[in-house]
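We emphasize that the prediction below concerns an isolated chain of 637 residues; any contacts that depend on oligomerization or on bound cofactors are therefore not represented. The input was used exactly as deposited, without trimming of termini.
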Amino acid sequence: MKQLDFTLSLIDRITRPLKQAQASVTQFADTSRQAFGQIGVGIAGVVGAGMAVRGALGPAMQMFDAMQEASARGVSDKAMKQISADALKFSMKYGTAAEEFIGASADIRNSINGLSDSELTRITGVASTVAKALNTTAAESTEFFSQMFGNFREQADAMGKVQFAEQLAGKVTYMRKEFGAGMADIKDLMEGARGVGINYGRSLEEQLAVMGELRKTLGTEASSSYEGFMSTAVEGAKKLGLSFTDATGKILSMPAMLEKLQGKYGASIAGNLKAQAELDAAFGDSSAVIKQLYGNVGTLQRHITELGGNDGLRRTQEMAQKMTKPWDRLMAIWNAIRVAIGLTLLPVLYPLIDTLADGGQRFARWMEMFPNIARVIGYAAVALLSFAAVGAVANIMMGVGKFVMLGWVGVWKLLTAVTKIDTAWTWLNTKAKLAWASVMKSLRGVLMALRMQAMLTGAAINFMSWPILLVVGAIALLAVGCWQLIKHWGAVKEAAAKTWQAIADGWTWLCDQFAAISPMDSLAGLAGSIGNLFSGLWATMKRQFAGTYNWIVEKLNLLPGVNIEAMATAESPAPSPGPQGLTGGQLKGVPRGGISRDINTKSQSYTDNRRTIGNVTINADRGMTPEQLREWQELQA
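Result of the prediction step, given as a C-alpha cell string:
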C-alpha cells in the first residue's frame, strides 16, 4: 500500500507541472490565434474597403487619367471639357469605352495640323463612329484619318476639315459594304499605290473605286498594278495610236481610258488574242488592270458616282448602330454613371491622397534625418514582430502536437484493425472448413448422379447411332445398286424400250376406239334419255293430278256464275273453244236486257283510274344456274 501511495505521489508531482505548462502554452496559443484572427479580419476589412472604393471609382479614375494624358499632349482645357462630355455620350450610344474616345482626340490633335477646338471634337466623333461601324479600334481609325488628311491636304483645306472627314467616313463605309474592305485593307491599298493617283490628279473616289474592283481579282496586288498602269498609261496609249490626256494635258479618268480602248477593240476583248497581245506590249504587266476592268465600265462609273455622294454620317451611323450590342450599351451606361459620380469625388479625394502621400514622404525624410529615432522604431517593430512570432510558434507547436497525436491514433486504429482482421479471418476460416465439409457431402450425391447420367448418356448415344448406321447402310446399298445398274445397263435399256413400246401401242388402240364415237353425240343421247325419263315421270304425275283437279272443278261449276275449264287428260281431250262462253251456253244469273242494260245504267258511276308507268327494270338477285335452266325447260316441255 505504501508503495502504491509513493508511486501515485511521484506521478502526481511529476505530471502536475507538465500539465500546468501545457495549459499555459495552450492558453497562450489560443490567445495569440485569436489576436492573429482579429488582425487578419482588420487587415482584410481595410483591404476590402480600399478595393471597394477603387472599384467604385475605377472608371472615373481611368477617365481622369485619359483626360490628364490628353491635356499633357496639347489638348486645351476648353476642348477637353467638350470632348469628355462627347466621350460619355458616345460611350452610352454605342457601348464603347469613353477613355478611347479621349485618347483618339489626342492622336488626331497630334497628327492633323491646324485644327480648332470645335473641329477636333467633331473629327474625333467621326473617327470613333467609323471605328465602331467597321468593328476596329479608335487608334486604327485615327491613324487612317491622319493618312487621308496627309494625302489630300489641299482637298481637305478647300472643302473644310470636318466636311472632308464626314465624306471620308461615308466612302469608307461604302467600301466596306460593296467591296468588303476593312479599315486596314483600305489603308494598305492607299499606301501600296504610293500616291500615284494623287500625283496624276485623280480623285479619291476614282482611286477607291478602281482599287476596290481590282481587289476582287488581283487581291493584294491591286494597288501595285494600279500604280504601274498609271505610270505607263500615257506612253502605252501612244503605242496603240491613242491619247489618254485631255486638252489641258491632264490624264483621263479610268472610265474614259476604257471607253477609248473599247472604241478601238470593241465592247469585249475576251478571246481577242491580238488585242490582248497589243495591250501587253503597250502596258506590260500592268495591262492586267485593263483586262480586269475592260467590261466593267458602267459598274466602275457607278461606284465612282456613289463614292462621290455626300450624305454626311448617315450611312456610317446606321452601320455603327447595327454593330452595337445592347449588353455593351448597358455596361457603358453603368460605367458612365460611375464616371459622373467619381469625377465629382476625385477633386476631393485626390488632394487627401496627396496629403497622405506627402505625410509619408515627410516621415521617410525624418527617418533619414534622425537615425536614432529610426533605430528605436525599428527595435519596437522587431519586438512586436518577435512577440507575434512567439505566438505563431506556439500555434505551430500545438498544431504539430495535434498532428502527432492524430498520427498515433491512426497507427493505433491500424493495429486494432489488423487484430480485428485476424479475428475475422480465423472465424471465416472455420466457417469455410465447415462449409467445405458440407459441400463434399453434397458433392458425393452429385457425383453419383453424374455417374448415372453418364451411363444413360452412353445408352442414348448408342440409340442415336442406329439411325446414323442405317443411313450409312442405305448409302452403301445405293452405291451397290448404282454399280449394278451401270453393270447391266444394256439389259435395263432394252427392257425399258420394250415397256415403252407396249405403252405406246395401248394408247394408239384407245385413241382408235374413241375416234369411232362422237363425244357430242354420246352426250346428246345421254341428255335425251335423261329428258325422256323426266318427261314420262311428269306425264304420270300430271295424269294422277288431273282426275282430282277435274272433280273439284266439276263441283265448283255447279255454283251459279262459276265456269272453270277442266284440265285436259290423255283419256278426255280438252274441249275446243266455242260460243258457249264461261257458262257452257246457258245464261245463269243474268237479268233481262243483259250486260248492255247493266252497262247503260252504271256507266256514269265509273271512274278512270288508269295510270301510265314508264320503263320497268327487274333486277334478279339470284340468277338461274345452267342446271336449274335445263330443269325448268324439261318441266315446261
